UniProtKB/TrEMBL annotation:
Membrane-spanning ranges: none
PANTHER family named among the record's database cross-references: NEGATIVE ELONGATION FACTOR B, NEGATIVE ELONGATION FACTOR COMPLEX MEMBER B
Domain of life: Eukaryota
Protein's name according to its UniProt entry: Cofactor of BRCA1
Upper taxonomic lineage: Eukaryota, Fungi, Fungi incertae sedis, Mucoromycota, Mortierellomycotina
Any Pfam family the entry gives: COBRA1
């Protein structure tokens, strides 16, 4: 079959919308459905941002789209219109990532016919520099402020700006920066001086969170952050941050000290129900405390996260239109487990009873009983944590921690959110349960095998897997 030269194909795409859609959709889907792209979009705390960006930018779909467009501004606009429509239809923020990446790929390829005519190019270029360092220095912030100053109040470009800010990597970078501003203001007691910067950063985060509504309704004014978030939720979070700072200063002192307990109010929970800014902040605060191994702070804040999840239970992750709350919380669980599996964190978890109580008993198990994404992440965590111990050959205090493994597995399975777990996902999870029980039976000569009386309902659940795969069932 002869393939027409690209210049001819582009004329056809411009004159035949059906042909355009038929040829563009497979390219877009290849990016959207790539497991690695999906995994990267869920990382709320990337360790190597430049590697992630380069990996995304070198994706075959990006190269194909640049070849497809060929510097033609009308084709570029048609591609952007398709991404907007698909984003409105699904609320999948990876369409925002693709929109961002196509423009930056044009910038890197020096396709000036595109970059000089896309009014959001200056913003994306500055944000890309921020994303590569996971920071927003004064020069970049000033450039971004000047960009917004040039955009008129009801300019339709706000729809594109909102999509760009809704790219998960960008929104998490902004959320991380917002939390850091709050931490620095607390530590230096400069709340008043930081207020304008805090509100401006929160407004950027909020604009991205409203991207779908802005594009769908064609109402292009920048939405204000809800007063409940700026006046109450962020004030409560500041109190948590202040208590963290006091504990850090006083922990090595022999002098007694007292910290006023922070009350997480109904209004704070409503903020988590309604505001992506509040959700992103609490997620990044918890991840920050986990990275700093502050188990005391985690024990104070994580029950509030559980309460929020409980208020919004039984979400179907297979639904056609994604729900922002649950997508954010799914990314959070993925990122939390990723940090917990780092060397220092996993060692502390496996050797310290308080860590097991706070993280597994008071957080993982309740969340897993409510939310299928949490359930999946916790089961996978146990498999990976056990294998880390097994591969290291370390026993002693680390190996002994798995005396709780059977009880954890039984609790997970007994309380699973069954109605929201698809049959396909259940097959995968059954295999993971079976592998954990089997691994426990052979590690360290069977020293840590799980007692049958500890897993009375898990055993019949996993036995079909053992029968099909001839897995070692010496446990």
């Amino acid at each position: 079959m002869l393939i027409a030269p690209k210049v001819v194909q582009r004329r056809v795409w411009l004159s035949n919308p059906n042909k355009f859609q038929n040829d563009i959709i497979p390219i877009v889907k290849a990016y959207m459905n790539d497991p690695e792209i999906i995994r990267m979009s869920m990382e709320m705390s990337a360790e190597q941002p430049t590697v992630v960006i380069n990996q995304r930018r070198s994706h075959a779909s990006i190269k194909k789209l640049l070849d497809f467009i060929g510097g033609d501004m009308q084709l570029y606009n048609n591609v952007m219109n398709s991404l907007r429509s698909l984003f409105v239809l699904t609320n999948d923020a990876i369409y925002c990532t693709l929109r961002y990446d196509v423009l930056m790929a044009c910038h890197e390829a020096n396709i000036r016919a595109i970059t000089t005519n896309d009014p959001s190019h200056e913003l994306v270029w500055n944000l890309d520099a921020c994303n590569r360092t996971l920071s927003m220095d004064e020069r970049r912030v000033e450039n971004i402020r000047k960009f917004f100053d040039k955009v008129s109040r009801d300019d339709p470009v706000h729809g594109d700006i909102a999509m760009i800010l809704n790219d998960p990597f960008t929104s998490n970078m902004i959320a991380s920066r917002l939390l850091q501003i709050m931490i620095e203001a607390t530590q230096t007691e400069r709340f008043g001086q930081a207020e304008n910067t805090t509100i401006w950063t929160a407004t950027m985060l909020n604009l991205g969170a409203h991207a779908r509504r802005i594009v769908q309704q064609q109402k292009f004014r920048i939405p204000k952050v809800e007063a409940n978030v700026t006046d109450k939720f962020m004030s409560t979070l500041n109190s948590y941050i202040l208590n963290d700072a006091i504990r850090s200063l006083k922990q090595d002192s022999e002098e007694p000290y007292q910290i006023d307990e922070v009350e997480f109010t109904e209004e704070n929970l409503v903020a988590l129900d309604d505001s992506e800014v509040a959700r992103k902040l609490i997620c990044h605060y918890i991840l920050n405390r986990l990275a700093h191994m502050d188990i005391q702070a985690l024990s104070k804040i994580m029950p509030n996260f559980v309460a929020s999840l409980k208020r919004n239970a039984n979400y179907d992750y297979q639904s056609e239109v994604m729900d922002s709350l649950h997508v954010t919380y799914r990314s959070f669980f993925h990122s939390f487990v990723g940090i917990l599996l780092r060397q220092h964190q996993i060692t502390r978890f496996l050797t310290t009873r308080k860590w097991q109580t706070v993280i597994m008993n008071d957080f993982f198990l309740p969340c897993a009983a409510i939310d299928s994404a949490a359930y999946e992440q916790v089961v996978t965590f146990l498999l990976n944590a056990f294998r880390l111990v097994a591969s290291s050959g370390r026993a002693g205090s680390i190996g002994d921690s798995f005396s709780n493994l059977g009880r954890w597995l039984e609790t997970l399975y007994t309380n699973r959110p069954e109605s929201t777990i698809s049959e396909e996902k259940n097959i995968v999870l059954r295999g993971t349960f079976a592998q954990i029980v089997s691994d426990a039976g052979v590690f360290s000569g069977g020293r840590y095998k799980i007692r049958q009386e500890d897993i009375p309902t898990v055993l019949p659940y996993v036995q079909p897997v053992w029968a099909e795969t001839q897995m070692d069932t010496s446990s």
